[in-house]
Amino acid sequence: MTARIGGVLLVAVLAAGGAYAYVQDSDWDWRDRAEAREVAREAREHAREIAREAREHAREQAREARDLSRSSREAQREAARTARDSAREAAHEMRDAIREQVRAEREALREMRRDLRRDWGTVY
Description:
Radius of gyration: 52 Å
Number of strands: 0
Number of helices: 1
Helix content: over 70%
Oligomer: single chain
C-alpha cells in the first residue's frame, strides 16, 4: 500500500510539475507571440512609411514634369507669338511701303498731267 501511495504521490508530483511547466512554457509562448506581433507591427509601419515616401517622391516628380512641360509649352507659345507678331509687323511694313510707292506714283502722274495741262493747255 505504501508503494501505491508512493506511486500515486509520485504521479501527482509529476503531474503538478508538468502542469507548472506547461503554464511556464505558455507564458513564454505568450511573450514570444507578443514580441512577434510588435516586430510585425513595426515592420508594417516601416513599410507604410517607405510607401508614403515613395508616393510623395512620385508626386514631386510628376509635379516637376508638369511644371517643365508647362514651361516648355509656354516657351513654344511665346516663340509662336513672337513669330506671328514679327510676320504681322513685316506685313504692315510691306503694305505701308507699297502704299507709299503707289502714292508716289500717283503723285508723279498728277504732277506730269499738271505739267502737260500747263504746257499744252486745254488740248491735252
